[in-house]
Amino acid sequence: MPPPEFSELVPELQVQAADVRITKRQWGAFYGTDLDQQLRRRGIKTLVMSGIATNFGVESTARAAFDRGYELVFVEDAMSSLAAEPHDFANKELFPRMGRVRSTDVLLEAIAAGAQR
Prior knowledge:
Helix content is 38%, strand content 15%. The mean pLDDT is 92. The chain has helices spanning 35-41, 54-67, 84-94, 104-115, and strands at residues 46-51, 71-79, 100-102. A 3-stranded parallel β-sheet has the order 1-2-3. It has a single domain, classed as Isochorismatase-like (Rossmann fold, 3-Layer(aba) Sandwich). It is of the alpha/beta class.
């Protein structure tokens, strides 16, 4: 069982009272949660994927999101895995079939460019 603080969010995220929190109970964030409903209610169509376990949680969530028609952006250097091989395989072979694979720097540049429009 993980320690009690395992699910606590770091202060740097600046969580607000109005923020929606989804508690993931399985590898995929859609399974057994209202994540899809919360996203659709807000008109969100694009998801930025990152996480601790590239080939477990990120991949499971990405497959479910793809099946539901979301546009996906995978931030390859904002994920990790137990070993380099499964991480690399997911980013080079699997994720490009579901969306775009980008680095954090490229993603932040795109966000900044979009904000300037």
